[in-house]
Design goal:
By secondary structure, this protein is α/β, with parallel strands linked by helices. The protein contains eight helices and eight strands. It folds into two domains: about 130 residues, Aspartate/ornithine carbamoyltransferase (Rossmann fold); about 150 residues, Aspartate/ornithine carbamoyltransferase (Rossmann fold, 3-Layer(aba) Sandwich). The structure holds phosphoric acid mono(formamide)ester. Phosphoric acid mono(formamide)ester (CP) binds next to α2.
């Protein structure tokens, strides 16, 4: 595996290998990276979890993390993504982790770039490292994906998490459903009422409303969205025994999920963040082991 760009590019075997390695790291195994690789994290969109988690994972697998501040980089003077990455490669980078607002920004890096490219989120496209940590979280809980009812709720059409997870989970045997306002279903068939999905879901995966990607703001009041599509305390009580709540975060409390549920027994929201470090260690090991 040279790059990690989209879940669509991974075989089921590659996905399961990364999950196995993530589990091994959680169990205390040491990474098999042969030398100290140089890695830079290029975040052209805001991030708390993904950027910090990648940096922690890079250090744990023995990489040297070279600071890069996108907000003070020459991208602001018009330098292209290709020229930025080529420049960092010439300086000595073995891998770059990139988040950018353009869908599939990585297409311009497929030719002429030798350093590994890890997509940390492209616009409303894909978020493969989030998907892998989500899959790791689900497999730890249920031991399998087969026949699980997984309901993804919220701003589906603008969500790279929804798209990355939907295809991967379906390929691995889960029954993925969507719940959202009609305008946010995009190409997906979706339910528009909790009644259709609440009581038989094994996983309820909530999404943040991606206001920054909306051309026209949907006219929901905060309470309006919560009442219609949020996971309320009353709805949580009707969830199936053993069912879990996930959210890639950042969470808007009392919008997509009731404040009191964020750390309830069913919630895996903060465990997802912790699992993200193991999943990203596994991604880095898999990619860097293949390099000279
Ligand atoms: N889940 C996620 O991508 O969070 P950040 O935007 O904080 O990285």
């Amino acid at each position: 595996m040279k790059n990690l760009l989209s879940m669509e590019h991974l075989t089921n075997e590659e996905i399961l290998h990364i999950l196995d390695r993530a589990q091994a790291f959680e169990n205390g195994e040491q990474p098999q990276v042969v030398r100290s690789y140089n890695v830079a994290n290029l975040f052209f969109e805001p991030s708390t979890r993904t950027k910090t988690s990648f940096e922690m994972a890079e250090r744990r697998v023995g990489c040297t993390v070279i600071p890069f501040d996108a907000g003070f980089s020459s991208a602001l003077k018009g330098e292209t993504m290709y020229d930025t990455v080529k420049t960092l490669e010439m300086i000595g980078m073995d891998a770059v982790v990139i988040r950018a607002k353009e869908d599939e920004y990585y297409n311009e890096l497929l030719e002429g770039i030798d350093c590994a490219v890890i997509n940390a989120g492209d616009g409303a496209g894909q978020h493969p490292s989030q998907s892998l940590l989500d899959l790791f979280t689900i497999r730890k809980e249920f031991g399998t994906f087969k026949n699980l009812n997984i309901t993804i709720v919220g701003d589906i059409t603008h969500s790279r998490v929804a798209k990355s997870n939907a295809s991967a989970l379906t390929r691995l045997g889960a029954n993925v459903r969507f719940l959202c306002p009609e305008e946010w279903a995009g190409d997906f068939e979706a339910a528009h009422s909790w009644e259709d999905v609440l009581e038989d879901s094994d996983v309820i995966m909530l999404l943040r409303i991606q206001h920054e990607r909306h051309a026209v703001s949907k006219n929901f009041s905060k309470d309006g969205y919560h009442d219609e599509f949020g996971l309320t305390a009353e709805r949580e009580k009707r969830m199936k025994t053993g069912a879990i709540i996930m959210h890639p975060a950042p969470v808007n409390r009392d919008v997509e999920i009731a404040d009191e549920l964020v750390e309830c027994e069913r919630s895996r929201i903060f465990q997802q963040v912790r699992n993200g470090v193991y999943a990203r260690m596994a991604i880095l090991e898999t990619i860097l082991k293949g390099r000279k």
